Amino acid sequence: MDWGDARVMLSVKAVIQERFDRMNKPSLIMPGWENNLPKIDLSNGVLAYLMNDFYVANRWAFPYDSIRRAIDALYFPGRPAHVTDFPDEAQTAWSEELQGVACDGKNWYITQVYKPDENSRVWKFPISYNLADVAEGPLPPGVKKAGIPKQLRDKGYWHFGDLDYYAGRLYVPCQGGDPAQVVVFDAEDLSFLGAAGLEGGTGAWCAINPKNGLLHESDFYDIPEMPFPATPEDVSKFEYDVQNPPPLRLRIYNPIWNAGKIKEFDPVGELELSDRRGGRTSAYRIQGGAFSENGRLYLISDDTRNGKARLLGFEMMTGRQMFGKSIEYSPDYPDLEEFEAIAIYDLDGNQSPGISGQLHVILLDNDIHSDDDIIFKHFRVGHKERL
Length: 387
Known about the structure:
Layout: H1 6-22, H2 46-50, H3 53-57, H4 67-72, E1 81-90, E2 98-103, E3 107-114, E4 119-126, E5 144-147, H5 150-153, E6 159-160, E7 164-166, E8 169-175, E9 181-186, E10 192-197, E11 207-209, E12 214-217, H6 232-243, E13 249-258, E14 261-272, E15 286-291, E16 297-303, E17 308-314, E18 321-328, E19 337-344, E20 359-365, E21 373-380
Antiparallel strand pairs: 1-21, 2-3, 3-4, 4-5, 6-8, 7-8, 8-9, 9-10, 11-12, 12-13, 13-14, 15-16, 16-17, 17-18, 19-20, 20-21
């Protein structure tokens, strides 16, 4: 089978023609245009040729149910442009050791590691709440918080990572024991809905693709360091590791529920991401990740070696990178800045005071002698309907 197959051509040609119609532009589809396309192996179907190997092995997990929607997935949003920082250098009750952020359009959800008792917290703020407010003392109306359940703390779990909201629930990765866990809360009242381990997972961040309901996470990918003192073997290993960074892979799990409680996260497999051309890609220090409603994955990576973080976007049919935006920051003393988390929601409708744009990234200023400050960075994309 090739692109000339009548059934394939009708589907592909119809979608392309529709795009021209939407743009009110004349069609550029000329007779015989398919003859100029390369011959490719479609013996297993069009989607099998286009999809990532993970989906070839797990067809049931493929996020799109038609050629039309699969082609739609290849239309990328514009590159993100910085809009504003708000709150900017704010010190609040929830800024100390902030670790994660998520948004469902009605509420902000934030995780932190609370220093006094080493018990992480998850916070809920109404979207109309001014995040620059301190929120010390009695909680304002609509603001809620919860900690790590005692049965997990007793087993050594203490560190919440970058969380995600999906279908009325909060999925919060938790580190400190083996294996890493994902703690699930009801997003309405923050009641505990159980926890389950991530076989082979790290618990730095997690996000659920709304197109298939599967949970994704990855290694942190820490930067190689030279031991001191170093042997010749140490030097050789360090040089090799620097020149050969590991490929960027996602671990994928299927959440299994029983009677309203999370039972397990069943490992499905690994999906290797790629660069724009489909080649191997890598990134260090993956601090957070989030999916858009269209099922595209966005990651924040802060490489402390050059003072530039990267905001990365991937389409999840092939796993190819859509864009990469550099963001300057100051990881060294005295600022000790660190990117921590990312959330996705279109807030150009003035829903949240001081905030607009679609991509929202937390930068933490790790103060040594006082509580940490946060810089909440917001970015707008072109063609946001493709986010």
